[in-house]
Amino acid sequence: MRYLRLVPVALGATLVNAALETAGLSFLPVYAIRLGWSESSAMLLLSVLLLGAILLQIPIG
């Protein structure tokens, strides 16, 4: 029964993590463009980051 009381905490932590990760990924190309990168380079940065996250799911666990 103790674990049932922790469910809202785990759910809240998951929601906060998802919101922060989504915000970070959304603004990464904007940040790169402001640093002087071209639009295509900024989008390539995001694409490579996401592709790496997908490919490393199994090896990292």
Task: Give a written overview of the molecule.
- The chain is 89% helix and 0% strand.
- It has 61 residues and is mainly alpha-helical.
- The chain has one domain (2-60).
- α1 (2-34) runs antiparallel to α2 (39-55).
- The protein starts with a helix and ends with a helix.
Rg, Å, rounded: 17 Å
Tell the overall outline.
elongated
The low-pLDDT segments are none
Mean pLDDT: 94
How many structural domains?
1
Q: How many DSSP helices?
A: 3
Number of DSSP strand runs: 0
Straight-line N-to-C gap: 29 Å
Tell me roughly what share of residues is in helical segments.
over 70%
H/E series: HHH
What composes the largest sheet?
none
Strand content: under 5%
Structural class: mainly alpha
Task: Give a short overview.
The protein is mainly alpha-helical and 61 residues long. It has 3 helices and no strands.
Q: Topology, pairings included?
A:
Blueprint (H helix, E strand, L loop, with lengths): L1 H33 L4 H17 L1 H4 L1
Helix pairs in contact: 1-2
Key features?
single chain; 61 residues; mainly alpha
